[in-house]
């Protein structure tokens, strides 16, 4: 999710779940090949397993980025052909590429030739008037046939490339999970992961009866604690999940290290505002972080104070 799942967000989420596969923001090939690679690619070793999500349409450039992803230590490379924003379309990548399955297949083939990492594709169920199930099946067949892709993450909404904003494209086109389920039935040899409208772990687990995986996006950002039971309920790991105060305590050394490098505290605390959602004191937690994290010289003490205040409020209510 562009501007959301940066390295600071991912490190925080990894403190909640050890096994869930995390994705980077979509990074364009141009940004990697011609920009600041450390800015776009750097991550903490604790973030594994981690997939790099790429945006692009030139097979040679995507192949070069796939090699770079392997060199940097990523676990997977994902080609995004599902993002519907105007900026993405103008760059000829994202959802508009669903109209060019042969090109997507060539891109995937070049990427697979360049790296030993798994190469996956994220798409929609359709775009514009090309939204029949047969269009989705044809796209998947051509990309898997030409490119050898064996794993597709399918957002269960079509995208309107003209007339709807990216936000509207996440809300207005109806969810059609049945078509993703049918795709898995008719192409059982492929890994099919469903995305779109999943509001938490329970909703994701329901999907696993039919498909191979489920991707939770904005719901996990807004209520990150929905991932706290993923290791046990999805991956069968024994042992208790960490508590929210424990997550805060484990995050503090990371905040200290990044602040020492010059990263503004607010760039990191914006990702943890929803940690205590639904609990007494959650509003005060969000307010204190929002008001203090942007101040000059703000550091981890801001988070410590907010956590202490939340604990005080909680203890008062319990008493």
TrEMBL record:
Active site: 83
InterPro entries: Aldolase_TIM, DUS-like_FMN-bd, DUS_fam, DusA, tRNA_hU_synthase_CS
E.C. designation(s): 1.3.1.91
Keyword Transmembrane: no
Keywords: Flavoprotein, FMN, NADP, Nucleotide-binding, Oxidoreductase, RNA-binding, tRNA processing, tRNA-binding
GO MF term set: flavin adenine dinucleotide binding; FMN binding; tRNA binding; tRNA-dihydrouridine20 synthase activity; tRNA-dihydrouridine20a synthase activity
The keyword Transmembrane is assigned to this record: no
Site note Interacts with tRNA, residues: 80, 167, 170, 283, 286
Catalytic activity: 5,6-dihydrouridine(20a) in tRNA + NADP(+) = uridine(20a) in tRNA + NADPH + H(+); 5,6-dihydrouridine(20a) in tRNA + NAD(+) = uridine(20a) in tRNA + NADH + H(+); 5,6-dihydrouridine(20) in tRNA + NADP(+) = uridine(20) in tRNA + NADPH + H(+); 5,6-dihydrouridine(20) in tRNA + NAD(+) = uridine(20) in tRNA + NADH + H(+)
Cofactor(s) required for function per UniProt: FMN
Broad class of enzyme this protein falls into: oxidoreductase
Positions that bind FMN: 53, 122, 155, 195-197, 217-218
Domain DUS-like FMN-binding: 1-299
Organism superkingdom: Bacteria
PROSITE patterns the record matches: UPF0034
Similarity-based family: Belongs to the Dus family. DusA subfamily.
Family annotation (HAMAP family): DusA_subfam
Function: Catalyzes the synthesis of 5,6-dihydrouridine (D), a modified base found in the D-loop of most tRNAs, via the reduction of the C5-C6 double bond in target uridines. Specifically modifies U20 and U20a in tRNAs.
Protein's recorded name: tRNA-dihydrouridine(20/20a) synthase
Organism: Tistlia consotensis USBA 355
Gene name in the database record: dusA
